[in-house]
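In the previous lecture we treated proteins in isolation. Real proteins rarely work alone, and many bind small molecules. This record shows how such a complex is specified: first the sequence, then the SMILES for zinc ion.
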Amino acid sequence: MTPRVIEEITPRYGVKLALRLASRAEEDRATGCWLWTGRLDQHGYGKIKVNNIHTGTHRAAWLAYRGDIPSGLVVDHLCRNRACLNPWHLELVTVRVNTRRGALKGVVGKWPRGSFCIRGHAYSEHSVERQHGGYTRRICLACERIRTRAHKARIRAAG
Ligand SMILES: [Zn+2]
Ligand SMILES: [Zn+2]
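The predicted 3D structure, ligand included, written as tokens:
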């Protein structure tokens, strides 16, 4: 039977899901964040499909490593890094707390705004500045590595 809600994947799929998540995440040594190398949504949250259900990787990580998500609670990032799925950077909060924190994002966070690339890599560790068309751009080297690897995998698959 196909589960209707993501909660139904636990605990039966816990170990399998945990391995799947871990195999596609990379630990950022600067922050301890586990950063998703797969698809991100437009808000920067990692996305994964579990039993045909699309869900956030942080929710999936909570279910796989920590346990249930009681109704009325949501999984929130202590590290403020949306692409992170380190289960110990996550906590359960009420929807209200989560909304309030969202409004303060970038103000109260441990890391100042603009410290991370879209995938959540700490710029202090991974970035270089490059001249491009007359202006300077900050490039994330960790993201570049992920892109290069994905590109090579595509070539291998095609060949
Ligand atoms: Zn984190
Ligand atoms: Zn990056």
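Summary for your notes: The chain is about 35% helix and 25% strand. The longest helix spans residues 141-158.
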